[in-house]
Amino acid sequence: MENILAQSAVRLQTNGAPLATASQPVIQLRDIEKVYQTKTIETVALNRVNLTINKGEFVSIMGPSGCGKSTLLSIMGLLDEPTSGVIELDGRPVQSYSDKELAALRNHKIGFVFQSYHLINDLTVLDNVELPLLYRPGVGGKERRERAYAALDKVGLSARTNHFPSQLSGGQRQRVAIARALAGRPEIILADEPTGNLDSVMGEEIMDLLLGLNREDGTTIVMVTHDEQQARRTERLIRFFDGSQVQ
Amino acid sequence: MLLSYLKIAWKVLLRRKFFTFISLFGISFTLMVLLVVAAMFDHLVGAHAPETRLNKMLFVNFMHVRWTSGGNQNSPPSYYLLDRYVRPLKTPEKVAVYSNFHATPSYVGNTRLDLDLKYTDEVFWQVLDFNFHEGKAFGGNEVRAAARVAVINRTTARKYFGTDTGVVGRNIEVNQTNYRVQGVVEDVPAMRFSSYADVWVPLTTSPNDLQRVQLNGDYAAIIQVKSEADIPAVQAEFDQMVKRVPLPDPKNMKYMEMHAEPLLASLSRQLMNPFTNYGSDGLTLLFSILSGIALLFMMLPALNLVNINVSRIMERSSEIGVRKAFGATSRTLIGQFLVENIFLTAIGGLLGLLLAYVALQLIGGSQVLAYAHFELNWRIFGVALLVTLIFGVLSGVYPAFKMSRLQPVQALKGGSK
């Protein structure tokens, strides 16, 4: 656990410059199954999925609604537990990790971007972006502010720091969500249909932003999308159907 | 982090104004009622001037006769009974005897003034700590000589003479009798039955036959002990004395009971007699009933808080999901909701304190209860606030705990916007 966090720290010291990442797996899924069980019905969301995401990759996942894309992303991001199978982050299986250890891992290594933004409406843009750093020991208020400003600057929203999410357009909200994901300087960004609620122009803007993060900072990005055109802009495209990888 | 929690707590309160109002109203209204009741209770039985040394006082307010026919008689004792049997007791330090107060007419020009008159002995002024505005109390010589002297309170002085200063030596007519004012004291609240009156005069000036042999009458006594440790011995001697009192009508009277008790126990014995039938002072029962009512009363805002907190937290499941996704542990989240609840309860508590203060000022100012002066009871405030806080914390933490144990993805789905 500490080693994993230490690796993140080493990466941060490179000041965001892309690293040599050839075939260095950051996320590995082995025989992942996810079954939703109700009293009367059993639904297989993921069926023995094996997948490796390498460092610095920009991978998009496509497939029809209900094929298990988002479930897969949640499991990769440690937001959900698989029914069976092994998840490895940086080569270490995480199944036995406690709530506290998983929280620390999410905090240090992963940033999330959701289709519906999931910004906290009662907090300002700046406070929303600071959120991941709030849970990081040793990061003081001043540093939090500075890093949140830097992240907002990166997404071009430094003029909106004191606005509330309700005062922003959909595209701006998603940029705030991306800034929030960036504030903790994670190695991995998991984006679940980040352009799904946006028009095509705004969608392209967000896509450009993500591509920039991947190319300039070497951030590993896994994106679930319905948009074929956007998916083709990424390095690798994985197609899903009925809980299984088909391509 | 704490600042961030407080910021969001404040926002949540403002966002749901109606629920915040209901919640705060529940907390503050309950606290206010508890504080007002506690202030009245304290006003009735707390150690306040002139009854400042309550811990060294035993009150003899009532005697109780059980008739052979099965009936009961409960009335104040006679002067004869107190003078003949209570005064000579060896263990007390002092015994003061005084009558109950009664409204008596007095006239200022053509205006009628109903003044509450009390007949007392000289010891009355020694065991009670009256604050004299001017003049002094009457002493043993005046009582023995049945001197027509009086002590009056400041309000009476103002009403009768138009001033409360320089009235010593002037005459006041009460009950068609002229008394020379010997002292003016601060007003005593009417709820302090033992010490309260508008006019106090020597009991020897009473038109009634004080030495008439009878058990029941219209008098009471305060027994002052040297130290609290003496109380059991004094009560034991008192109880022995009561057994020796001959019954004037042994054929029809089964027995007579009389007790020397602290003020609260003395009141409780009267109040609780339908349940205890004078078998005990009923204090345990009284406290049980009062605690039960207080608890029930506090349950209302507590249940209200539980309800509001559950819906408040459930509607914030998306926020919980986001916080978990970005590294919040379950403990951190419970901590956040704990801070929010403490914040809400603290605001409710302060409002309650403010409302209680205003209510007590209004009740005191209205003079529904003559010469009442209410004070906030900080101990009751602390206990009530603590209990509300505990309920608030439990009601907030339980749903937060449940929510914090959800997988982040479930929490996120629960609050999708």
Walk me through what this model shows:
Chain A: Residues 27-246 form the ABC transporter domain. Chain A: This is Putative ABC transport system ATP-binding protein. Chain A: Pfam families: ABC_tran (PF00005). Chain A: Belongs to the ABC transporter superfamily. Macrolide exporter (TC 3.A.1.122) family. Chain A: GO terms for molecular function: ATP binding; ATP hydrolysis activity; transmembrane transporter activity. Chain B: GO terms for molecular function: transmembrane transporter activity. The complex is a heterodimer of chains A (247) and B (417). Chain A is of the alpha/beta class. Chain A has one domain: Rossmann fold (3-Layer(aba) Sandwich). Chain A has 8 helices and 10 strands. Chain A has a 6-stranded mixed β-sheet, with helices on both faces. Chain A has a 4-stranded antiparallel β-sheet with strand order 2-1-4-5, covered by helices on one side. The longest helix of chain A is centred in the last third of the chain and has 18 residues, at 200-217. Chain A starts with a helix and ends with a strand. In chain A, 47% of the residues are buried. Chain B is elongated and about 90 Å long. In chain B, the strands form 3 sheets. In chain B, strands 5, 6, 7, 8, 9, 10 and 11 form a 7-stranded mixed β-sheet that branches. Chain B is of the alpha+beta class. Chain B is built from 14 helices and 13 strands. The model of chain B has no long low-confidence stretch (mean pLDDT 88). In chain B, β2 and β3 form a beta hairpin. Chain B has 2 domains: 2-46 and 285-414, no CATH class; 70-251, no CATH class. Chain B has helices at 2-15, 17-45, 79-86, 124-127, 140-144, 154-161, 231-244, 263-271, 273-276, 283-314, 317-325, 330-366, 378-404, 408-414, and strands at 57-60, 63-67, 72-75, 94-99, 102-108, 111-120, 132-135, 149-153, 171-174, 177-185, 199-202, 219-224, 253-258. Chain A binds chain B through residues 74, 77, 79-81, 99-100, 103-104, 106-108, 111-112, 114, 116-123, 127, 130-132, 134-136, 180, 184, and chain B through 1, 4, 7-8, 11-12, 15, 318-319, 321-332, 407-410, 412, 416-417.
